[in-house]
From TrEMBL:
InterPro entries: Cys/Met-Metab_PyrdxlP-dep_enz (IPR000277), Cys_met_metab_PP (IPR054542), PyrdxlP-dep_Trfase (IPR015424), PyrdxlP-dep_Trfase_major (IPR015421), PyrdxlP-dep_Trfase_small (IPR015422)
Keywords: Aminotransferase, Pyridoxal phosphate, Transferase
SUPFAM superfamilies hit by this protein: PLP-dependent transferases
GO molecular function: transaminase activity
Obligatory cofactor(s): pyridoxal 5'-phosphate
Protein's UniProt name: Aminotransferase class I/II-fold pyridoxal phosphate-dependent enzyme
The organism of origin for this protein: Enterococcus larvae
UniProt-listed CDD domains: CGS_like
PROSITE patterns xref list: CYS_MET_METAB_PP
Protein family per UniProt: Belongs to the trans-sulfuration enzymes family.
Classification via Gene3D superfamilies: Aspartate Aminotransferase, domain 1 (3.90.1150.10), Type I PLP-dependent aspartate aminotransferase-like (Major domain) (3.40.640.10)
Length: 373
């Protein structure tokens, strides 16, 4: 654990691979030991080894929490049981009746949570599409701005530094969901955000085998508040899942770089493909949305795919295709969805690390089959 902190001069790829190495001085284990013990003996009354009970602190979880904090250039990191529990943990910071401004085009589960909070009278959520709209809506009564960039699934980028300036001016916190780009491509805290959240189920874990979330704070003060809230509410990541996340993070730089390379190749093909109406790509990362010529083609296109898997989620080594209308964004009312461009002819692609040419070929043959029907 110490070594990682001392090695700030290392490049990111190096730091990632070294997560957890030298974390156990007693045995020299290169792979972080999984500490399953939920409770820890006290040497004597009033003394502690630093570990008392696993909800409060666990040695395996601490390794990944320190790594997450460092990766996002933050002060404190928290590893929790899912992306949604990461978002829920952050909203523990605010009192009832708080006002929030939220980017409109975002993960359907976040919308569903904010809608549920609104319905039970916890807070007021107002949605914005652009930073001009944010600037008009923000005021001294705003507690926090929550945004996802690039937006999901329409891939518009929002300027985090500018949003941070607006939030600071009005004493509001800026919370950024950094799931899509990961700290390899975007570091919101460095751009002025106060809190970053992740669905670590996606790129950070990277293998479609782990449900996890992360929260990273820019300040110790916010970190202390969240540590209290997490110990109180308890959705911590289990020791085994913490180890899986460590294992995933070791290859994050490698994966994200290859996924982006593949995505760029795919985008060049998609943009000149006559059977695709529109391509949405923010020029970085490996998330692409496409609109087919007609929504009627969607069922046959999906069943014709041989390599891409039709499944929700994203960011793993396997390429996936998602239909937001019935999957990730089904909880956003149809009229609302369509009003900002999330129409039922849109598909979202998460590009993995397969050979790019195989991915292109798969899309091409599926498009041809669905068009011929
Ligand atoms: C998946 C996702 C979430 C929710 O994370 P879970 O790990 O599924 O709970 C939140 N935000 C974004 C952008 C996501 O893609």
């Amino acid at each position: 654990m110490k070594k990682i902190n001392e090695a700030l001069q290392w490049q990111e790829a190096t730091k990632l691979v070294q997560i957890g190495n030298h974390s156990d001085d007693q045995t020299g284990a290169v792979s972080t030991p999984i500490y399953l013990s939920t409770t820890y003996a006290h040497p004597e009354l009033g003394k502690s080894t630093g570990y008392d009970y696993t909800r409060t602190a666990n040695p395996t979880r601490q390794v990944v929490e320190q790594a997450l904090a460092q990766l996002e250039n933050g002060r404190c990191g928290f590893a929790v049981s899912s992306g949604m529990s990461a978002i829920q943990l952050v909203f523990e910071l605010f009192p009832c009746g708080s006002r929030f401004l939220v980017s409109r085009d975002l993960y359907g589960g976040s919308y569903r949570y904010f809608d549920a909070l609104t319905k039970k009278g916890f807070g007021y959520f107002t949605y914005f599409d652009t930073l001009d709209e944010l600037e008009k809506a923000i005021g001294s009564e705003t507690s926090a701005v929550f945004l996802e960039t690039p937006t999901n699934p329409l891939m518009n980028e929002l300027d985090i530094a500018k949003a941070a300036q607006l939030a600071k001016k009005h004493d509001a916190l800026l919370i950024v969901d950094n799931t899509f780009l990961t700290p390899i491509l975007q570091k919101p805290l460095t751009l002025g955000a106060d809190i970053v959240v992740h669905s670590a189920t996606k790129f950070l874990g990277g293998h479609n085998d782990l449900l996890a979330g992360a929260v990273i704070t820019a300040s110790d003060e916010l970190g202390e508040k969240l540590a209290f809230a997490l110990n109180t509410t308890g959705a911590v990541l289990s020791p085994f899942d913490s180890w899986l996340l460590i294992r995933g993070l070791k290859t994050l730089a490698l994966r994200v770089t290859q996924q982006e390379k593949n995505a760029r190749k795919l985008v060049s093909y998609l943009k000149q493909e006559a059977l695709i109406k529109e391509v949405f790509y923010p020029e970085r990362g490996s998330m692409i949305s496409i609109k087919l010529i007609s929504a009627d083609q969607i069922p046959s296109f999906l069943s014709a795919l041989e390599l891409f898997t039709f499944a929700e989620s994203l960011g793993g080594v396997e390429s996936l295709v998602t239909y937001p209308t019935t999957q990730t964004h089904a909880d956003i009312p149809k009229d609302l969805r369509e009003s900002y461009g999330l129409t039922d002819d849109l598909l979202r692609l998460s590009i993995g690390i397969e050979a790019a040419d195989d991915l292109i070929e798969d899309i091409q043959q599926a498009l041809e089959k669905s068009a011929a029907r």
